[in-house]
Amino acid sequence: MSQLLSPESSTRTADETPLPGTLPEALRAELIAFRRDLHMHPELGNQEFRTTAAIKARLEQAGLRPRALDCGTGLICDIHPRSTDGWDGFRPMLALRADIDALPIPDTKTVPYRSTVPDRAHACGHDVHTTTVLGAGLVLAELARTDRLPHSVRLIFQPAEEVLPGGATDAIESGALDGVGRIIAVHCDPRVDAGKIGLRPGPITSACDRLEITLAGAGGHTARPHLTTDLVTATAKLVTEVPALLSRRVDTRSGLALTWGRVVSGHACNVIPQHAELSGTVRCLDLAGWRAAPDLVHAAVDEIATLYGAKSEISYHRGVPPVVNEVSTTELLRDAMAVRRGPHALESTEQSLGGEDFSWYLEHVPGAMARLGVRSPGDHTPRDIHQGDFDADESAIAVGVELFTAAALLGTPS
C-alpha cells in the first residue's frame, strides 16, 4: 500500500493522541478522481450497483473486508486495531456514515466530469460524502497497519437516502449499528466555505413526512351546488384550514407545517366533480411534534371534510424524524476540526427544514452531523443543493477526511 500519511506534518493533542498528518498529494488526487468518477455515473436509490462495486474494490485493495448490505446495494466495513482480529465485543465502535445515491434530475453543469446518465445527477453531494468516508477509511486502515489505531471504526456506505423513509432503515436491519456506540456524518453545504464546517447541537434538520388525501362526493351541475357535495369548496377549505388548525393544536415552537404541492379536481367549468386529490409534505422541527403529527393531521382533515359532507381517505407516509445532534458528539466534531484546522474553521449553522435519514441512526445511538463547506471561498453566488448546477469545491474532500480521522482518533465511542 502506498504511504497515506505525511508523518512530518502530524500533530498530537494534549493527551498525546497521535493524529494523521496532511494528506499527501497522491491521495488527494486519487480521491478527487474517485469523486469525479461517481459524479459521472450517478445511480438512484437502491440501484447503486456500480457505486457499491467501486467502493468495495478500493477498500479490498487497502486490505479491508467490506460486507454488502442485505438490501443489495451499499456496504459496511470494519477497521480494527492491529492487535485484534476483530471487534472485541465490548468496546463500542465509532461509525462513519456516507450516503451513496443520486437524484433524478439532469446535470446542467459544463465540466469534464458532468453526469453521463440522462436525468441523473449527484446534486446533493453524496459523491463527496462517499469519497470522504472512503478516504478516512484508507487513512485509518494505514494507521491500523502501523499499530496507531486505538479502537475499531466502522464505515457505513448507505443506499437510498433520497427515497423515503430512507435507506438508513435497511442498513440498520442489515446490522450496520451492531456494536456501534456513536455515529457521525457530514452533509455538503454550499452556504459554507470549503475549509470550514458548520455545527449545531440539537436539531439540525427537520422531520419530513408525505401526505396524500382523496375526497369523494356526489357531484353535479354548478347551477345547483346545494344538491351536491361541493367538492371544490371542500378541497379549497382543506387547503387553507387544515394548516391553520394544525398551527393551533401543537406548540408553535415545534414548527409543524403542512405545505401542499399538488391539488387536482374537476374537468369542466360547469360541473362539480366527484373526486379530488391533494398531496403535500408535513415538516416539523422537533421530535415531539413529529410523533404527534399523524393523529393531528387525521383529525383536522376529518373535521373539515365532514363539515362539507365529503368522504376522505388519508394516506400518511412516515418519512424521517429530525436529525438531533447529541451534544457530546457535536463537541467531538468541534474538537476534531479545531485540532486539524483551527477554531477559525468552525462556524455555527442554523436548523434546516430539509429532511435527512441519518436521523434513523440517532433513534438507536448518539451521534451528530456536521455541515461540510463546499463553497469556493470568495464566491458569493447564492447556491443550493438539489439543483442541476450544484457542484462542490473539491478541497472539501480533504477537509472531510481530516475531520473523520481526527474524530475517530480523539473520540471514545459511548
Describe it.
By secondary structure, the protein is α/β, with parallel strands linked by helices. The protein folds into 2 domains: 7-205 and 323-410, Aminopeptidase (3-Layer(aba) Sandwich); 207-320, Alpha-Beta Plaits (2-Layer Sandwich). Helices cover 31% and strands 23% of the residues. It has helices at residues 25-40, 49-61, 126-145, 168-173, 231-247, 287-307, 327-341, 359-362, 395-410; strands at 67-68, 75-79, 93-99, 153-158, 180-193, 197-199, 202-203, 207-216, 220-221, 257-265, 271-272, 275-284, 311-320, 324-325, 346-348, 367-375. The strands form 4 sheets. The chain has an 8-stranded mixed β-sheet with strand order 1-2-4-3-5-16-6-15. Strands 10-12-8-13 form a 4-stranded antiparallel β-sheet, with helices on one face. Strands 7-14 form a two-stranded antiparallel ribbon. Strand 3 (93-99), helix 3 (126-145) and strand 4 (153-158) form a beta-alpha-beta unit. Helix 3 packs across helix 9 (395-410) and helix 5 (231-247) runs antiparallel to helix 6 (287-307). The longest helix is centred in the C-terminal third of the chain and has 21 residues, at 287-307. The model is unreliable at 6-16 (pLDDT under 50).
What keywords describe this structure?
alpha/beta, four-stranded antiparallel β-sheet, eight-stranded mixed β-sheet, 2 domains, 9 helices, Alpha-Beta Plaits, single chain, Aminopeptidase, 23% strand, 414 residues, 16 strands
Main beta-sheet strand count, sense and barrel state: 8 strands, mixed
Instruction: Count every beta strand, where a strand is a DSSP E run of 2 or more residues.
Output: 16
Distance between the termini: 32 Å
H and E string: HHEEEHEHEEEEEHEEEHEEHEHEH
Shape: elongated
**Topology-level CATH name of the largest domain:** Aminopeptidase
| CATH-defined superfamily of the largest domain | Zn peptidases
